[in-house]
Amino acid sequence: MSGANSWLQRQRKTDLAELAQHTGLKNYESLKKSELELALDEYLAENSSTFSSDPKLANYYSSRARTVGSPVKRDAAVDGPVERLKVLKRRATKAAEEVITPESEEEPTSTSTALVRTPGRALSLASRIPLPATPADVAEAVDRSTIAVRTRVATLYKESGITEATHATRESLSTVASVLLAISAFELWFLRPEILADRYAFTIPAVSFLGTKDFPVFVPDMFLLLTSSFWSPALIWAFTSAVLPSVAGYFVNLTVGAHPNARVTRRSAPPADSVVDPLTFSIAKALISYVVYGQGITFGGWIDETSVARINTAIYGGYKGVLTGTAITGIFSIYDAVLKK
Asked: Which tens digits make up the pLDDT trace of 46-75?
């Protein structure tokens, strides 16, 4: 099999792949560089009428024209006469050597044999010496390694399920109910140390090898669950921040029957109504928190003033922080309702 075009041999494998994609060569991804050179050479030679005018392939066809028109192939036609002349010259030279230097016959034949065979042995030895890699081979190896690493990383990322988990988390948090729960958890985070104080449990000793110090560990005092010091403020916060606003949002629910003219098809289900109206919930929570924590109304002694003061002191920002949270959830509720229209 003859070698590929010299211009193709000087190109990098990535450039050859781009040419294969540009010209429409099929099944070239698994070919090595030398195989890709031969495939491109044959393909472009067969389709020269189509690609000869392409600017990207002008250098290729110029190189091919020089190769086809070289004197080496023209000399092949007259190879016979040249061989005949060489034979005649060799015979004449041999006869002249015999006449001029007859004493050369006395020289040992081993010397001439050694002189004749020396170039062959040198070429054989040179062929066994490993040559350094060319820049094209280095670039091809780097390209193969880069592609393998990129493919492996993409496969690991796809199999890890990070994308699916991220989308599921975003869908769960992108609701008004999630915002309401987040704000309630924020209030409860600051209220817990007040009603369920931490108590010293043990100490993690220092580790000299790691350079750490003694670390005391505190845990919530669960015995406080048996006292009114925990239940009184806990129940007041639960009623004012969750129970009473939920009752108000359930009975005053503006989402019920809010879509009387909604068009229902086989592919689209009717919009679901919220069990608790988030806007009514936020308004009711704001009013109750302002009355209880801001104005200090005890409703005839039903609410302990000490517990109200403890809650008002523990929650971040006091009752004003609670009102800010209700304003945020109210804005989210209105925005969600506008989007559902």
From this structure: 888 888 888 888 888 888 888 766 444 444
Nearest Cα to Cα of residue 281 among 339, 341, 332: 332
CA 109 remoteness from chain centre: 74
DSSP 302: T
Contacts 24+ apart (CB under 8 A), 17-25: 19/56, 19/57, 22/56, 23/47, 23/51, 23/57
Closest CA to 176 of 36, 12, 56, 333: 333
Closest CA to 23 of 44, 37, 45: 44
State how far the Cα of 202 lies from the Cα of 208, in Å rounded to an integer. Answer: 19
pLDDT in tens, 237-279: 999 999 999 999 999 988 776 655 555 555 555 556 688 999 9
Cβ atoms 233, 195 nearer than 8 A: yes
DSSP string, 72-89: HHHHGGGHHHHHHHHHHH
First to last CA, the chain: 72
The Cα–Cα gap between 340 and 329 comes to 16
Q: What is the C-alpha to C-alpha distance for residues 295 and 309, in angstroms, rounded to an integer? A: 11
